[in-house]
Amino acid sequence: MSTLPTNPRSYRLAELASELGLSYRGDGQVRIDGVGTLSGAGPGEASFLANPAYRGELETTRAAAVVMTAAVADNYAGNALVSANPYVDWARLLGLLKPPPPIMPGVHASAVIAPDAHIAASASIGPGTCIGAGVRIGERVRVGPACVIDDGVEIGDDCRLVGRIYIGARARLGRRVIVHPGVVIGADGFGLAMDRGRWLKVPQVGSVRIGDDCEIGANTTIDRGAIDDTVLEEDVRIDNQVQVAHNVRIGAHSAIAGCVGIAGSTRIGRYCMIAGASGIGGHLKICDSVIITAMSTVLDDIDQPGEYGSGIPARPHARWKRLLVRLGQLEEWAKRLKRLEKPNKNHGPG
Amino acid sequence: MSTLPTNPRSYRLAELASELGLSYRGDGQVRIDGVGTLSGAGPGEASFLANPAYRGELETTRAAAVVMTAAVADNYAGNALVSANPYVDWARLLGLLKPPPPIMPGVHASAVIAPDAHIAASASIGPGTCIGAGVRIGERVRVGPACVIDDGVEIGDDCRLVGRIYIGARARLGRRVIVHPGVVIGADGFGLAMDRGRWLKVPQVGSVRIGDDCEIGANTTIDRGAIDDTVLEEDVRIDNQVQVAHNVRIGAHSAIAGCVGIAGSTRIGRYCMIAGASGIGGHLKICDSVIITAMSTVLDDIDQPGEYGSGIPARPHARWKRLLVRLGQLEEWAKRLKRLEKPNKNHGPG
Amino acid sequence: MSTLPTNPRSYRLAELASELGLSYRGDGQVRIDGVGTLSGAGPGEASFLANPAYRGELETTRAAAVVMTAAVADNYAGNALVSANPYVDWARLLGLLKPPPPIMPGVHASAVIAPDAHIAASASIGPGTCIGAGVRIGERVRVGPACVIDDGVEIGDDCRLVGRIYIGARARLGRRVIVHPGVVIGADGFGLAMDRGRWLKVPQVGSVRIGDDCEIGANTTIDRGAIDDTVLEEDVRIDNQVQVAHNVRIGAHSAIAGCVGIAGSTRIGRYCMIAGASGIGGHLKICDSVIITAMSTVLDDIDQPGEYGSGIPARPHARWKRLLVRLGQLEEWAKRLKRLEKPNKNHGPG
């Protein structure tokens, strides 16, 4: 419940460069205590240029200093922090200027903690949070308000569970995992058997394992495994409203954008990137370093790295409706083409 | 925790017409104390006809009175409330007959309120709700149970947060905003920089601004901005399970149906309507008065008002599979067409 | 808060067969106290073979016994439980070996219960849960932590609400309904009327009725009806992150996979199956026994049982982009085809 830094920090440009291990150009004495976009930053605020599309904004920015590449800095008269990777160094600069608030260790009086739960003394447990039997919570973990952590869960050091999160029985989170509000980890997967005209629920008895340095976006769901566990390897980054079904395995360093659905037992490789609102079918194998473009449907294994997709960009609706009519005619067209190609072809459709 | 009106109201038709500023036809003394659909309404219940498709149901309805246009009323023998816009006047009639329950001002004993939060005396705070440092809650605001409102949030007069809602640090809601359960406003956006083979989180330091009269549907997520704020202008209406990424801006009076995803930094104009399950790419500009049809993918700027789409209506699966085969042949067909068009064309495929 | 069985049970194979009403082959004295996949099971663990694709794993499995058909058992040298429907009997076996934990009847001290709510003495209400006026909770119901159950809700015998669930006013759940975390039942539907340039909210006054034996997956939303109720008939099974809009009716025994959206007033028949991430338009009628394949868009009534779809499988992106170009040319191609088919045709495009 305290996300605001109590003491925003202030640096001179030369100090900031030194802290970040970067060189700077211009006035090393200028004071920096905030951040802004190139167009929005005012005096005392740092900014950055990573996307060349915004380069024109350098001419009018009022930022006190701008993180940029050496090549850009060579033609810039203002104050610069020179970086080989401006977006990475911008993230590091934000970590200095906008540090997360300090942890206030302790368990809120309104939290409900099972007697045999083990909570590190350096951890913080927010109001109204319920922690079940045998749970282990590591050093410096922050569990925000209104979380439900079921029996036997293990949460590694330095995790942050922002608030209003559910974690099901026996799930294990590695270290430095960040979980955003509304996330449900370890609910039952969708296991059903049809038994004489009625569905029979197949009990789901696996759990969820999440590696170090993963991040799970708001309202994302990750189901427990049917028998074995659902697994996220280390450094997997998942955006909001993603659905990860039972027994999915996502390889290290993969990133999944918002609204993606991944059906049961699919394995996604390492360093994959899945763009927004795509759907990945069940029981598939996607190899390492695959990129799926937005709103695509993956229904087959992919065994070669590269970019795949099936999203269709929107057009004016009247034109799209005419194209849909033509699409529906393709079977007939196949016959017409074939007929036209016959040496003694019979002209005319039908 | 009290959504049921304690005293359902009762009106005579003539009184109802007078309250709504409408004329009526038929028996002004008939008593009305409930509502129903044309086919479901019984005695004492009002109904409405806005969609001409349901006009046939007028012949058999048992409704005590029906809101309808004058043109329809001219041929209707029953009791009518005559309206230039029956759906609008139906909404107003519901406001009279089914008013929201009165606010019970006060803070529930189990709520956890930071000492320096400012909560108007006329506001109501439900059980288990946590309110952080420096939060400001306006007059007649209802915050239901189990909400988490982080530090520095401002909530304008007459807002209604139904329950089980998370609002992140420093978000600002205007007046009369309605937020449904499961909503997450102000979680971190999906900001990542690749740093020597590992993702580095880019701290998200902006917040969310929501204008007057917005409504946010259940389990929708609206991320905080990366640097500047994510913004909903006034009277934006968002359905359930919509994802609004960091730094999106949605213009006044736009409506977004369920399951839509809007990627980062996209600007949507005023009076736009986006139908269900569509995906809007990042960094786009959509002008005013654009309609996107269901399950479309928008990947380009739109600078002309009008209707756009790319959804494909389902067909019998066997036929769809054959069309997919043809779709996959289009590149080859292009060559065949070209060959056929050559004056001395070479007959036959390949 | 106690999902872990305290005393995992142990059976001899002959006992297990007897309990399940199955015959067995092999060593009836072998002890079984756990479960595993064919490849993962160790000594003391049962497994199953339902999908022929995994038959090869029988050769190397270390499982103590495997549920399988008689035909497979005829060629299997290990211990077998012989079943006409191995997946169904596997579900039943899991019910024996991994029974849900016993209910601990009673209301947690931190729950907030309206004075006139009626809660069966055999029910269990978890910490922090809020129960409104006039709510009725049946025998052996488990309501987990941090749930919000609004006024007038009725919950039938043997339901299980796992935790962090919202149920809106007057919703009625039948018997044995399972609701997973993050679910929102009975939030307002998306009812809006445009009134002189501004949206007017149409009050939503219906509720939700859910039949016996339904299951609702994590973070799914089911809106209350506008006037009449939204209805799930008995034995409807819904996966995670599904959106069911106001006044939808879903027929008995239908199953809806993850991330599906169903727009308002649509009626889905009995024994339908809707695969992941599909979108179903509003005001449609889908008859019984319809299967919708993954990521399809249904925009028309369906009055014949069978399989329908419009999802497009992803391809390598470069190839997909070329196909999109061809798709955009289909209108022009229609003219070219017609021209080629004319007896005195004019060769060449344009």
What portion of residues of chain A belong to β-strands? 25-35%
Number of helices of chain A: 5
Instruction: Tell me the number of strands of chain A.
Output: 40
Give the uncertain stretches of chain A in residue-range form. 1-6
How is the main sheet of chain A built?
Answer: 11 strands, parallel
Number of domains in the coordinates of chain A?
3
Give the CATH superfamily of the largest domain in chain A: Hexapeptide repeat proteins
Question: What's the arrangement of strands in the largest beta sheet of chain A?
Answer: 8-11-14-17-20-25-28-31-34-37-39
CATH architecture tag of the largest domain in chain A: 3 Solenoid
Largest interface: A-B, 75 and 79 residues
The average pLDDT value of chain A, as a whole number, equals 95
The CATH class of the largest domain in chain A is Mainly Beta
- Quaternary structure type: homotrimer
Provide the gyration radius of chain A in Å.
26 Å
Helix residue percentage of chain A: 10-25%
Which geometry of chain A do the CA atoms define? flat
Strand pairing plus helix content of chain A: what structural class?
alpha/beta
How far apart are the first and last residues' alpha carbons of chain A, in Å? Answer: 72 Å
What is the fold named in CATH at topology level of the largest domain in chain A? UDP N-Acetylglucosamine Acyltransferase, domain 1
